[in-house]
Design a protein that fits this description.
The protein has about 325 residues and is an all-alpha fold. It is built from 15 helices and 2 strands. It has a two-stranded antiparallel sheet with strand order 1-2. Strand 1 (about 5) and strand 2 form a beta hairpin.
């Protein structure tokens, strides 16, 4: 397989096509791709451990986690990762998947809940991992980075602060910087969507209306960013200025495609999150209603028993 170099990183020589995009390609910098495989193996091992203890784990959570790790691998361990170094449209597809699809699927897998159920309890070395996880969840730092006043600006800065400043070209100029940026996209997605989905214990708990507000707050800024890139008549970053000449790419047109990907990509993930939040809201209201009914039943029973006892006391006195 022929390949070339672009900014010091591997780029396939043949032009991109559907039969080439997802060919596996791993090198010394395929850190995230390797981590995706490790994460899948560890998760499946935890599920098997639960099953061995006679505890059932929802199958759809396992499927979601597998989908999240698969999306991470496809974006970072295939030729798509190489093409993303030369084409803005491919890079933006990578960015959107790592920011939206991968985090949402991983969060639906509820890994924190799974860890808390499988890690051993108790004091000493055996219980240390679980204790450290709980301590991290309740730490002041975790509460700070999970606050909407931090997560929403961070989410927006991942768009405007990276692409409209020299930072993007600087990060894309080295394999380490590129990996750091891709990891940043995933982490930002996890921090932003974690408290909104509410599938795991989280440092901060939002009400369901608060979750919806946080979900929709960045939507107009995200859409405006996509439109701004779509309508730009010159390149906003230098990284994609010189794709291989044999590909015959119009770089400004390709940038417009990237803007369209941004503009249209947020809708489906937003609808998915909206459905999860509404389902969670309805379920919590149903549980609350059942709890109220049970409390009412207990109150009625107590009142009935007290009344019967009162009648027996009167009968005993009269006799």
């Amino acid at each position: 397989m022929d390949h070339g170099q672009h900014s010091g990183m591997w780029v396939p020589s043949p032009p991109p096509s559907w039969d080439r995009l997802f060919l596996v390609h791993l090198d010394a910098w395929s850190i995230l791709a390797v981590l995706s495989g490790v994460a899948l193996v560890v998760y499946l091992a935890a599920v098997l451990r639960l099953r061995g203890a006679g505890v059932r784990w929802p199958w759809w959570r396992t499927v979601a986690w597998a989908g999240g790790t698969a999306s991470l691998f496809l974006m970072t361990g295939t030729w798509l990762n190489g093409y993303s170094m030369a084409l803005f449209s491919v890079h933006m597809t990578q960015h959107m998947v790592l920011s939206f699809v991968t985090p949402l699927l991983l969060l639906l897998g509820a890994p924190v809940t799974l860890a808390l159920r499988t890690l051993p309890r108790g004091r000493g070395a055996a219980g240390a991992p679980r204790a450290l996880l709980l301590e991290a969840l309740h730490s002041r730092f975790a509460r700070f980075i999970s606050h909407p006043l931090f997560t929403v600006p961070l989410f927006l800065a991942s768009l405007y602060g990276i692409y409209f400043t020299p930072l993007f070209d600087a990060l894309m100029g080295s394999p380490g910087g590129h990996q750091l940026m891709l990891a940043h996209f995933v982490v930002v997605g996890l921090l932003f969507f974690g408290p909104i989905l509410g599938q795991d214990p989280w440092p901060r708990t939002l009400s369901h209306p608060g979750r919806l507000l946080e979900l929709f707050l960045p939507v107009p800024f995200h859409a405006f960013f996509g439109v701004a890139i779509m309508m730009a008549d010159s390149l906003i970053v230098r990284t994609f200025a010189d794709p291989p000449a044999s590909w015959g790419v119009d770089t400004v047109q390709d940038q417009g495609v990237a803007g369209g990907i941004i503009w249209g990509f947020g809708e489906l993930p937003t609808v998915l999150v909206l459905a999860v939040v509404f389902f969670s809201w309805a379920s919590s209201e149903e549980r609350r209603g059942r709890a109220i009914d049970r409390a009412a039943d207990r109150t009625d029973d107590a009142e009935r028993l007290a009344y019967n006892a009162h009648l027996r006391a009167l009968a005993e006195r009269s006799s």
